[in-house]
């Protein structure tokens, strides 16, 4: 992820690894991408945005030797008149099977890519943030415990949100996890999505004390609460909304109590001072 001012040129290095025992011709190209259904996907039109024309690869084609690593450089040049906004793309390395002969009509192409999130605009990087709205326990159609976390991108950059879940029960004597997210979420600015965790099918219903930590880069949000899984397969339990917002609520209530106490003390002292002043008269 990069934030670049118009008229700027930067370079990024990356590697293409051949783990096989044979040499392979590799083709490297840049394609536009989009965020759709909370997923990062290549666009149907490779040139759907400007990234393919802004990014050049120093070796777009090369022969990768067996068990090798080939270092490449991507040069990103932003024209001075580039408009503000975030673009998505990917640098893709492809290896194709031998060209099919007369009796064949299928050629297999395998590719891997590096995601590109490029924000254009003057000044510093726009703020990035997200919140966890609620966490809900459930069971799949096969009866396996599952947890879904509804999240919302409250910043101005796209986010890839992943995380871990811990469970504890019986006063901390039973612990389960950490469970890695089975499905992460890629969210455009202002959009919401879901991160899901598939758990051990041997877990009892609970209640469980849950701690959920979600991350996107250096942004981390933690949610704590109580989860109880339903008995029936294919059902969802009650959502737990007691999370990291609880300390904030308690802090605000505590502050109001302190402010109220301070006001009462001030009123009493002021009243006493007036009574004393009238007595002196």
Order of helices and strands: EEEEHEEEEEEEEEEEEEH
Helical content (DSSP H or I, runs of 4+): 10-25%
By CATH, the superfamily of the largest domain comes out as: Immunoglobulins
Please tell me how large the radius of gyration is: 28 Å
- In the CATH scheme, what's the topology name of the largest domain? Immunoglobulin-like
Q: Approximately what portion of the residues adopt beta-strand conformation?
A: over 45%
CATH top level of the largest domain?
Mainly Beta
CATH architecture of the largest domain: Sandwich
How many DSSP helices? 2
Summed up, the domain count is: 2
Main structural class: mainly beta
User: What is the terminal separation in angstroms?
Assistant: 75 Å
Low-confidence stretches: 242-281
Q: Main β-sheet: number of strands, strand sense, barrel status?
A: 6 strands, mixed
Overall form: globular
Give the number of DSSP strands: 17
- The average pLDDT is 83
Write the layout of secondary structure elements.
Elements: E1 2-4, E2 9-18, E3 24-36, E4 39-42, H1 51-54, E5 55-57, E6 61-64, E7 68-77, E8 85-96, E9 109-120, E10 130-139, E11 145-153, E12 159-169, E13 174-180, E14 185-187, E15 192-198, E16 208-216, E17 219-227, H2 245-280
Parallel strand pairs: 1-9
Antiparallel strand pairs: 2-7, 3-4, 3-6, 3-8, 5-7, 8-9, 10-11, 11-15, 12-13, 12-14, 12-16, 16-17
Features:
single chain, mainly beta, Immunoglobulin-like, 6-stranded mixed β-sheet, 5-stranded antiparallel β-sheet, globular, disordered C terminus
Plain-language structure description:
The protein has 281 residues and is mainly beta. The chain contains 2 helices and 17 strands. The strands form 4 sheets. Strands 1, 3, 4, 6, 8 and 9 form a 6-stranded mixed β-sheet that branches. Strands 12, 13, 14, 16 and 17 form a 5-stranded antiparallel β-sheet that branches. Strand 12 and strand 13 form a beta hairpin. The C terminus is likely disordered.
């Amino acid at each position: 992820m990069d934030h670049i001012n118009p008229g700027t040129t930067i370079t990024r290095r990356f590697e293409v690894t051949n783990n096989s025992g044979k040499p392979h011709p590799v083709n490297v190209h840049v394609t536009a991408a989009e965020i759709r259904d909370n997923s990062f996907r290549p666009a149907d039109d490779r040139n759907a945005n400007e990234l393919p024309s802004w990014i050049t690869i120093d070796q777009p084609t090369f022969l990768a030797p067996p068990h090798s690593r080939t270092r490449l450089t991507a040069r990103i040049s932003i024209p001075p008149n580039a408009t503000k906004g975030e673009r998505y793309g990917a640098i893709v390395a492809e290896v194709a099977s031998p060209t099919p002969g007369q009796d064949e009509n299928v050629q297999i192409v395998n590719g891997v890519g590096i995601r590109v999130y490029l924000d254009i605009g003057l000044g510093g990087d726009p703020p990035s943030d997200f919140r966890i709205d609620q966490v809900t326990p459930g069971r799949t159609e096969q009866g396996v415990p599952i947890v879904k976390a509804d999240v919302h991108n409250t910043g101005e950059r796209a986010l890839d949100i992943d995380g871990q879940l811990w469970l504890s029960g019986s006063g901390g004597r039973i612990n389960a996890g950490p469970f890695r997210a089975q499905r992460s979420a890629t969210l455009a600015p202002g959009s919401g999505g879901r991160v899901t965790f598939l758990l051990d099918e041997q877990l009892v219903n609970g209640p469980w004390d849950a701690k959920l930590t979600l991350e996107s880069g250096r942004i981390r949000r933690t949610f704590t609460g109580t989860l109880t899984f339903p008995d029936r397969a294919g059902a969802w339990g009650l959502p737990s909304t007691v999370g990291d917002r609880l300390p904030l609520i308690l802090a605000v209530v505590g502050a109001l109590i302190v402010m109220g106490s301070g006001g009462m003390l001030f009123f009493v002292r002021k009243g006493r001072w007036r009574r004393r002043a009238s007595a002196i008269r």
